[in-house]
Amino acid sequence: MPFILALLFSLSSNLDNFVIGFSYGVQNKRIALVPNMIIALITALVTYLSMVLGQWLTHLISHQESSDIGSIVFIGLGLWSIGNSFSNNKKTRHDDTKELGIKAAIGLGILLSINNIGVGILGSVSRLNINLITILTFVTSILLTYLGNHLGNNVIGKWLGKYNDLVSGLLLVILGLLSFFYAL
Question: How many domains is the chain partitioned into structurally?
């Protein structure tokens, strides 16, 4: 039972990785293994640190506050992407796939880990196994980012064509709103 709880906990804290991966895939941006592992490493590290320091952090930043910050950042990125789609409305999807670089992966890893601060604190208060949560967070981050990126780039992304920035922006706004109203 502890494994199932830890797995559900890790999946719920990394669902935004799927949306981000999908969003990048729709934009024809590939997230290769190394950048994906960097994102997962940062996410797992932040989750681990927030769990270890969970008792001390509870009086500095609440789960709701960290969730709200992450939501606002996602909504902002989504609105920027939507605005970009209208300013570049003649842009079409090209066959040349762009790859996410190391700097962008670090930034994305930090962004995706903001929500995990509150989740990690909650996990430490709930007395979940810190090592198991960290390992599962790393693994689910990689898998969900890859799956979202693959689906966005290879399946659905081909159908969306010139609307890729608009769709990815809408997904980010929806992610931000859902995470704002339905924080774990």
Answer: 1
